[in-house]
User: Fold this.
Amino acid sequence: MHQPGPRLASSTDLQGVLALAERKISPCNEAIYQRIREGDTWQSEYDLYVCDGTEGLRGFLVLKKHLTRGITGDRESVICDFFAPHVPDQTSLLDCAADAARSYDSQFLTIEIAPHDKHLREVLEGQGYRLESHRISVATADCRPPEASPYSVRLAEAQDHFSIAVLNSMMLEHTLSAERDYDLSELTFRSMEAIFQQLSRQDEGCVALVLTRGQELVAHLLLELMGETGYIYDLAVAREHWGGTAVRHIMRSGSQLLFQRNIPLLAGDVSACNLRALQFARRALGFSVDSQRFGRRLR
Ligand SMILES: CC(C)(COP(=O)(O)OP(=O)(O)OC[C@H]1O[C@@H](n2cnc3c(N)ncnc32)[C@H](O)[C@@H]1OP(=O)(O)O)[C@@H](O)C(=O)NCCC(=O)NCCS
Assistant:
């Protein structure tokens, strides 16, 4: 029997969407449902698509219409939440999201999924989505710096900013999202500028640590404080110090600093092509992968 395709939801669908959302196994994007429940102006930012069945809704998809990524300038639409138990509804909702994203002039359409959701991963890969990055996190702890270390850690000072920006730009190939082609020379200066801006923030939202050996700046860790989370805005260790204790030292200091400020979580995004960073984070620091971002190139 022919099933009608997805359509934009109307206000009478909202109860049905919220009921379906409760059947999801993977966590929902609660902030959006809060906005939908409160009936504020979410429609200016999001599209909500639904699939009709004979006995109510069979699926839904929430699309953030448009965002522009800092540094790269990538134009992107984001599937913020998505649920349909049956594969034909899943593919038609995803097709619908891709059409909408194109109409918003997005270059990419992305979605974050739970790492154990093999079924959805297959559906996405079947539609041309590729793994771009991992969202990782670990509880902060009152870590002690390694004893007898050749390194020391301190808060960054204004005279460190240039060295931090240079080290960041040298590591760009490791930190940019996988599966997107970038002109590194073009991004170098934009990335350095973003680092300078982050370091010059006057608010309490950015903490910058540097690791030194003697006069040499060996590594930096920039944390962005967001409520319960210290987000790793940038982490880089100078190439000659890879494979030693440098990264462990600065990361433990970062974890301890957050712990002492009652911030319970340390989180970050690791590019899918950066297996070294992922391996290190999991094995040496106990990070786990919370979600994986898949992206589809639209143009
Ligand atoms: C990520 C980074 C901070 C890690 O520091 P490091 O000193 O290189 O880390 P370590 O050598 O202690 O650990 C790397 C681990 O990855 C493993 N590894 C290396 N290459 C790998 C690969 N291609 N695939 C899988 N694992 C790999 C190493 O064997 C090591 O694991 P082990 O200690 O269990 O043997 C550093 O490499 C760096 O600055 N990279 C560039 C910037 C960057 O990626 N920043 C992180 C953004 S999230």
